[in-house]
Amino acid sequence: MKRKFIFLVMLFALLGGVKFSAQAQETITIGESKDLSTMYLPLTDFSKQSVTQQIYKSDEINKESGLITEIAFHVAQKSGSERNVVIYMSETTKTNYTDAYDWIAVEDANIVYNGKISTNVDGEWLTIQLQNAFEYNGENIVVTIHDKTGVAVSGTYTKFYVYETQGDDNAAKSRCMYYTSSGSIDCSNLKKCYASRSVYVNSAYKYVLNNVKFTMATLEAEVIAPESISLGDVKLGNDWTEKNVASANVEIKAIATTITSISCENNFFTLNYDLDQNPV
User: Fold this and answer.
1) How confident is the model over 190-210, as a mean pLDDT?
2) How far is CA 134 from CA 21, 53, 140, 266, in A?
3) What's the average model confidence in pLDDT over 162-189?
4) What per-residue string of b and e applies to 243-274 under the rule 16 or more CB within 10 Å gives b?
5) Per-residue pLDDT at 262
6) The pTM is what?
7) How many CB atoms lie within 10 A of CB 143?
8) DSSP string, 38-68
């Protein structure tokens, strides 16, 4: 009986292999209306520099976790300009902004994109493939965009579609901040920037957020289970005195799989284990 037990322990110890490789991608769209548009979010190309910050709630995202690989904004009117931007992402339990200095600091945020984008996509979604995917863990998402181009567009400005936020009062609806400058903006010290929280949209000030799409990949665990396992030369000298060799040390890794058969060509072991009656 003791020999059977030791054999099974060694067999299970050699099993191993969980591979996290398969990725199923899903696009999460928040805001689809084309009734409202603004030139203030998510960037303002009529000024030399701008910084905007928006909070998207977890119940809008409706995912427990995932890897965000792309973000997209719906262009309502193109200027055709090329902008140099830095995009930050982070998570927060904060649901709204309380005053004009209530920025969420970007020091601990992830820089997911740093480079140029073109707004030459009239009426289409401007999709930005992130250089650094963002690991989402179920909280509210903060998207901060710093347009550091340093050149203002003249003539036609870029506009993006937005949707109105909901809440019991204006404070609860306040989920965006934006600030424009003819000079440079130091994003490491946003608390000094006096931000606007309501946005001029269709001839009135409203509390809005950009229509947005997040492309999110879900990691899936793939169990790698071999068809058969060879134990090789097993040395068990301490339990059987007639075997004058040292016992082997085995490192154990956990795995979830099902054993369908156990066989042994060495008649030193006796196997009377019924897998049908007692599945492993």
Assistant:
1) 93
2) 17, 16, 13, 53
3) 95
4) eeeeeeeeeeeeeeeeeeeeeeeeeeeeeeee
5) 65
6) 0.73
7) 25
8) ESSSS--TTSSEEEEEEEE-HHHH--S-EEE
| Residue recorded with tokens 């603004």 | 38
Residue 9 has what DSSP assignment?
A: H
CA distances 265 to 16, 227, 268, 269, 271, Å, are 23, 17, 9, 9, 11
Note whether 172 and 16 are within 8 A (CB): no
Least reliable range by pLDDT among 57-71, 118-132, 250-264: 250-264
For residue 226, is the peptide bond before it cis, meaning its omega torsion is within 30 degrees of 0? no
Nearest to 89 by CA among 30, 41, 133, 37: 133
| Whole-number percent of the chain with pLDDT over 90 | 64
Contacts of 25 (CB under 8 A, 6+ apart): 69, 215, 216, 217, 218
Res. 20: pLDDT tops 80: no
